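Q: C-alpha cells for this one, please.
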Amino acid sequence: METPGSQSSLHRANLERVVRAVRLAGSLTQAEIARATGLSAATVSNIVRELKDGGTVEVTPTSAGGRRARSVSLSGDAGIVIGVDFGHTHLRVAVGNLAHQVLAEESEPLDVDASAAQGFDRAEELVSRLIAATGVDRSKIAGVGLGVPGPIDVESGTLGSTAILPGWTGAKPAEELRGRLGVPVHVDNDANLGALGEMVWGSGRGVKDLAYIKVASGVGAGLVIDGKIYRGPGGTAGEIGHITLDESGPVCRCGNRGCLETFAAARYVLPLLQSSHGTDLTMERVVRLARDGDPGCRRVIADVGRHIGSGVANLCNLLNPSRVVLGGDLAEAGELVLGPIRESVGRYAIPSAARQLSVLPGALGGRAEVLGALALALSEMGDSTLLDGSLSEATPVFT
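A: Here is the predicted structure, written as C-alpha cells:
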C-alpha cells in the first residue's frame, strides 16, 4: 500500500499527470509536457521512458521551433473512445483512439420525429458496425461521449423540453445508451460539444476563452472559460438563442417574444425566402445561393449575421471571450455572415472587449459535435487504468 506523501505515491501522481496531459492534448513534445505539468525536464524524460517501456505511450521524432524534438502520444492500442452525435436530421458516430486519431466515422439521416428508443436503436447498430469495421477489440473501449440537441439537467441527466426532438423530452440519454453498450457514457448538449471539438481540433486551438455559436434549427452557444466548458449549475448556460432582441417580435418556442432564435434559426429564416425560392429550401442551399450572388439570400444572411452579432456583443460585455467560432451550415457563408457579426459587435459591445475579440468560422463543419463527443470521452476517462493496463477489467464490455 502506498503511503500518502511517500516517494512511490509522488511518482505515481507524476505518472498520472504526464498521461493526463498527453491524453487531453493528443500529442506533446517533452518540453510541452514539462510546461503543462510543471515537472522538470529530467523528470519528464524519465517518466516518458518508463511509460514507453511499459507500452503506454509512443515516442516519434518531430521538430519544434526549428529544433529536433520528440513527440509523445498515447499508444495506438491503449484504448478507444466513441463519439455519438444526435442532430436535428442526422446521427453521426465516430471511433477514435487515445492519440486523437479518428479510426472510423459515419453519418446517416435521422427522422426528427423518431422516438428516443428508435434513435438509440440506430446508434447502437451504428456503433457496433463501426467497431467491427475497425477490428478493434471491444475490451479496449474506454468510454462514449454523447451529444444531444437540448439542455441536459446536470443533477438528473434528463433531457429538458425541446422542440427539436419532442419525442425525447424527459429521456435520460447517458443512462439509456450505457444500458445498451455497457460502457461509461458522458452526455452534453451539441453546442458544448461543438466548442470542445473546435477547441481540440479546430478554430479554437490554443485559446482558453471562447464561445462556439451553433445556428441550425435553434441557436445555442458552447462557452469555454479558462479552458473548460462552462455549463452552469443547471446545465443551461449558453442559451444565447433566447436573448431578447425585440419584446414585440415573433413568439419563440420558449414562450417569449423576439428571441435571437426567432431572427436567426433556420425554422424562422427559411420562410422569408420561400415565396421567391420555393418551399424546398435548406440553410445549406441558401448559403450556396448567397455565395453565388443571389441578392435575396445575401440580404437574409447579412440580416442574420447582424442579429447574431447583437447576441455576441452581449457575450463580450459579460464574459469578454477572446474568440467566437461560428458553426453550423451558416459558417460556410464566410464573410457574408462574419462581416455583419463583427459590425454588430463593434456597435454594441464595449470597445475594449470588441477589440480583443476575433470572429472565425468553424474549421470542422458538421463534424464539430461528434469530434467534441470524442473529446468529452477522452477528458472524462481516468488515467489509472491506462497505467495499470486494466482497461478491460475496469470497463464493462457490450455485446
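A few notes: The first strand starts at residue 27 and ends at 29. The chain is about 45% helix and 20% strand.
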